[in-house]
Design goal:
Length: 717
């Protein structure tokens, strides 16, 4: 756990270290996820100058924009001796770390001032990482129209793109001029651009489907292949004649979830392409769809299908496996998330989201890739480069080898798949055989590090051996690693390691647990205290983040795991209930917490990725939908309450093409742009386990797993 977070360091790369990785525009603003104010901005003023701000940030304008759905409002009045400054920050998004070459800053601006003077136009500067500012460049714009301002880097005193990519904010300011007059500008699409003329659009897009749900319509189109397409622009009409632009989409996502926000209403849609200069193509064909009332069962299927699409449509191209996050790196596969995705693909196949044939083809691709990909003692790395199949040390150079925990999440999915593809034909047999081979090659026993070691170790590096030196100690998300290591038919570890390592009782385990829990509660593995009226048998502090109750138990049915201390279905259920009760009590008074807003777990956040827990020190005010929704088997009533609130109350920002976005924080008026590979699939899979037990039943059918359980039972006597 500790290490998991400690090595979450995102390296910022401006060059092409990895061949052909997708290059994003280095951007500062396209749209705000939230209304009212823009989280990634700040304003200040002094000496009698005033600038409009909402809670210290720039207002978001929903009615006037260059790209739909919004822009930023810059409204100010200067005084003779005063000044103001507004900063728009570059968002550092995991995996969005390769950028298109650039030579200039581009801003779209609209002058909506009532008065005609141009003497109070703002100046623009770039802020470097050390907070120093470049030369200020004055800008001008005509009134009443959107205009592109392009400022070459040289005007800021910057000589190259590498230096420009160190910019953390674009600063707007002015002082002293044109005093006492109200100026109003709208600014949009702030980004670095190349002054080379871009490729021109030739084709027009083709809309393929529009499907209505309770509050939103999903539209999808033919995959974009033309490199000239920068964005897809989406139009909605309520009468089939007058169309309003409602949003934009990346060219690598062929789908848009339009949260129209009304049930039982008909809408018409069309789309267009935008090129690098925002020139627009011809519009597509028009398709219509109606929103409709949905039953609880239909809502569950809707959430399952949307999250399933992350792994079906959003997969890495060479392998068919899961990416770490979207948007993020396109070529980088995350092993553990892929294991979860495999289980989501199975649930999706069984629910008919795809055909069995389509599913078989995908699993042939996945298992073929994994049979050839780089492993270390049969164990996969955390991240794999899709095109080459080699380790990708995304978390730093020490993490350039095996990751036993990620591999166990992957293996959990593969073993469920081995039982699902049970038909007597050559394709399904090949899938089963490849999975057996992968399973049998994994040298779980190598990861003991020392002869007769009590513990399994998380990582091994081919050139730095055990340098990360992280031994696996419960309670956390890694129980399945011990259970699989014990169950291995070829490289098993003794079942006694469950007690000597996972549930370790000596000072190593005690110190480890109290260090990360900041309490002695649960430092002996077992806990025994009561929180919010609920007795917790096992768990550090009051149980920890909810992903502890998800990752190891998506395939492995916790009903069957009973050790000397507890049964893990009951214990997981109690952890989910404690989490729920904590959020209802909401001691830090965060906005949005309550019976329909709960579930602290690991997710993206406004300031950082963090593993939130239901304790004061680890509760940062953000809620991740996966927390409550992946807990469906444990807390069906409370999970359904959260699901409905997230969709019906917050869907306008929280719901997107792959279902719920990773997290939101109403106190900070922030919502994540991201979908995370580790967080989407658990929703699909755990809802399925709640509804039918499908993935649990498949996984538990594996004979080695049954044998492993017997060994553990013997050890527990
Ligand atoms: Ca915009």
């Amino acid at each position: 756990m500790r290490r998991f977070l400690a090595i979450f360091i995102i390296l910022f790369l401006s060059g092409n270290l990895i061949a052909q990785e997708y290059e994003y525009s280095y951007g500062f603003f396209t749209n705000s996820m939230m209304k009212e104010n823009y989280f990634f901005s700040s304003v200040k003023s002094s000496g009698g100058s005033v600038i409009k701000a909402i809670k210290g940030k720039l207002p978001v304008a929903g009615s006037r924009f260059h790209t739909p759905g919004n822009a930023l409002e810059l409204q100010y009045m200067n005084s003779a001796s005063g000044s103001w400054q507004a900063a728009v920050y570059h968002k550092e998004i995991r995996g969005m770390d390769h950028f298109r070459d650039a030579s200039a800053l581009s801003i779209w601006i609209y002058d909506a001032s009532a008065e005609s003077s141009v003497t109070a136009m703002p100046e623009v500067q770039l802020m470097r990482r050390d907070s120093s500012l470049t030369t200020a460049v004055p800008i001008t714009a005509n009134k009443g129209e959107w205009q592109q301002i392009t400022i070459p880097f040289s005007k800021f005193g910057i000589s190259n793109a590498g230096e420009a990519f160190q910019t953390i904010a674009v600063i707007f300011s002015s002082k002293g001029t044109d005093t006492g007059k109200l100026r109003t500008f709208y600014i949009d699409d702030i980004e670095f651009t190349s002054t080379d003329k871009a490729l021109k659009l030739i084709a027009k897009p083709e809309l393929q489907d529009a499907s209505g749900y309770a509050m939103h319509v999903d539209i999808s189109w033919k995959k974009v292949s033309a490199p000239a397409v920068k964005l897809i622009k989406i139009y909605r009409s309520e009468d089939g004649r007058n169309f309003n632009a409602v949003g934009v989409q990346y060219p690598f996502i062929s789908r848009f979830a339009d949260y129209a926000g009304e049930t039982g209403k008909k809408y018409w849609y069309c789309i267009s392409y935008l090129d690098a200069d925002y020139n627009e193509s011809e519009k597509s064909n028009v398709l219509e769809a109606s929103t409709r009332p949905m039953t609880d069962e239909e809502l569950l299927t809707m959430v399952q299908q949307a999250s399933f699409r992350y792994y079906w449509e959003g997969s890495e191209a060479s392998s068919g496996m899961a990416r770490e996050d979207i948007p993020g790196r396109h070529n980088m596969i995350a092993s553990g998330a892929s294991g979860f995705g495999i289980m989501a693909l199975i649930a999706g196949t069984e629910r008919g989201f795809i055909s069995r044939d389509e599913s078989v083809k995908r699993f042939e691709q996945i298992t073929d890739f994994l049979s050839k990909a780089e492993t270390f003692h049969g164990v996969y790395p955390h991240f794999i480069d899709g095109p080459s199949g080699k380790v990708e040390p995304f978390f730093g150079n020490q993490d350039n080898g095996a990751d036993l925990v990620e591999t166990s999440f992957l293996m959990q999915g593969l073993l469920a798949a081995r039982q699902y593809f049970d038909r007597n034909n050559s394709q399904e047999k090949e899938i089963r055989d490849r999975i057996t081979s992968i399973w049998e090659k994994a040298e779980w026993d190598w990861f003991r590090h020392y002869p007769n070691s009590k513990f399994l170790y998380w990582h091994w590096s081919p050139d730095q051996a055990w340098v990360i030196n992280h031994n696996l100690i419960g309670w956390n998300e890694t129980m399945v690693t011990y259970l699989l290591a014990i169950a291995s038919p070829t490289h098993a570890v003794p079942a006694s390691m469950y007690y000597s390592g996972w549930a370790n009782q000596d000072s190593t385990g005690q110190k480890y647990r109290s260090a990360w829990g900041q309490t002695t509660d649960g430092s002996m593995y077992s806990n025994g205290k009561t929180y919010f009226g609920i007795k917790l048998d096992v768990g550090v502090s009051n149980g920890g983040p909810l992903f502890f109750t998800h990752y190891s138990y998506m395939g492995y049915d916790p009903h069957f795991i009973t050790d000397k201390y507890t049964n893990y279905f009951t214990n997981n259920q109690n952890i989910a209930r404690i989490n729920y009760k904590y959020c209802v009590e909401n001691p830090k008074k965060f906005k949005g917490y309550g019976p329909d807003g709960w579930g602290l777990t690991a997710s993206d956040g406004p300031f950082d990725y963090s593993a939130d827990e239901p304790v004061m020190g680890q509760d940062h005010g953000k809620l991740a939908p996966t927390g409550a929704i992946s807990s469906f088997p444990y807390t069906p009533v409370e999970s359904m309450q959260a699901l409905k609130s997230y969709y019906f109350n917050y869907g306008s920002f929280l719901w997107g093409e792959y279902g719920f976005r990773d997290a939101f924080d109403l106190t900070n008026n922030w919502c994540s742009d991201l979908y995370m590979g580790l967080n989407q699939a658990p929703m699909t899979v755990m809802i399925e386990n709640y509804r039918t037990g499908l993935i649990w039943n498949l996984f538990m059918k594996n004979p080695e797993i049954k044998e492993g359980l017997k060994k553990l039972e013997k050890e527990s006597k």
